[in-house]
Specification:
Length: about 300
């Protein structure tokens, strides 16, 4: 069993494609297939099932993946610790995020980080809130963006944005600037499945009303197109708003509702040097760009200052 075999297996499992995995690893597709086949032969089990619908982990493959990711994580830590010992800032940060943060928050941060730390690679995986949480807990990523609160993870606040109501420009409510969430209860509601659904449902529950959820969609472009056509109303965080607001009316909610965002990881103490550098820079960048109003330092913030 080799690290190359474990890396090939973990990468295919994470991206769900031999072709994409070969591009990520800089290997030929046949070399990736051969590595995994050799690993399966040595272990005498099938780790992956393949059919016309895609690639799936077997039950034993799921268990092996957890161990493989832990081994690869520790190897990367060794590389980064030894590099740090001789004054080199190198390594890799695997980052999980969801669309609104990927589009609005991350580009500026990642551009500045690359300028300051060209020896540290940041690999980005994008998914739903639930997928990002799963990636963090399974160590498929080193750190991920989450909407607070979350349990059993260490978090470092990075941003907050406001939940806003979105209606078509021709909607009767479009004449107003602010509305109570109850005023959306009579319209068909278009719900985002990307990750804010639990928060939005809780908002309606606190107002003691039930939304008339008519449609649910993952792609925000679909949601905004449906609102634009007058098929319903929606609530989204400010970072999710499209650049072109033609045909929409954006309304503030009363009382104001905020989404608090953070980077989360299982443990800052065991994080690699590259991850600690990334988190330190991310927090400073978020404050400099006014995504996050500086508050009294929490223990994690103090740990980052000292790392």
């Amino acid at each position: 069993m080799t690290l190359a075999q474990l890396q090939a297996f973990a990468t295919v499992a994470e991206v769900g494609s031999f072709t994409t995995a070969s591009e990520v690893l800089g290997m030929t597709q046949s070399a990736v297939s051969h590595s995994i086949a050799s690993l399966e032969k040595e272990l005498r089990v099938s780790l992956l099932d393949r059919d016309r619908n895609g690639i799936f982990l077997t039950e034993i493959g799921k268990r092996v993946l957890v161990q493989a990711q832990e081994i690869l994580f520790r190897v990367e830590q060794i590389r980064q610790e030894t590099a740090a010992a001789v004054g080199l800032e190198t390594g890799k940060v695997r980052l999980g995020s969801f669309p609104s943060v990927t589009a609005r928050f991350l580009p500026g941060l990642l551009r500045q980080f690359r300028q300051h730390y060209p020896g540290i690679d940041v690999v980005l995986l994008e998914g739903t809130d639930d997928e990002v949480l799963e990636w963090i807990n399974s160590r498929a990523v080193d750190v991920g963006v989450v909407a607070l609160p979350v349990e059993d993870l260490e978090t470092i606040a990075i941003a907050q944005d406001e939940f806003l109501a979105v209606v078509s420009a021709s909607h009767p409510l479009a004449e107003r600037d602010r509305i109570h969430i109850r005023q959306l209860a009579q319209d068909p509601f278009i719900m985002s499945k990307v990750g804010c659904k639990p928060i939005i449902v809780k908002m309606f529950r606190q107002a003691k009303i039930d939304p008339k959820i008519q449609f649910e969609a993952i792609d925000l472009r679909t949601i905004f197109s449906m609102v634009q056509e007058g098929m319903g109303v929606t609530i989204v965080p400010e970072m999710s708003l499209p650049d072109n607001l033609t045909g929409f009316r954006i309304l503030n909610l009363e009382p104001k509702r905020l989404r608090r965002l953070a980077f989360a990881l299982p443990s800052l103490e065991t994080a690699s040097p590259a991850v600690k550098i990334f988190l330190h820079q991310a927090r400073n960048w978020a404050e400099s760009q006014h995504y996050l109003i500086p508050e009294k330092q929490n223990p994690l913030a103090r740990q980052l200052e000292g790392s």
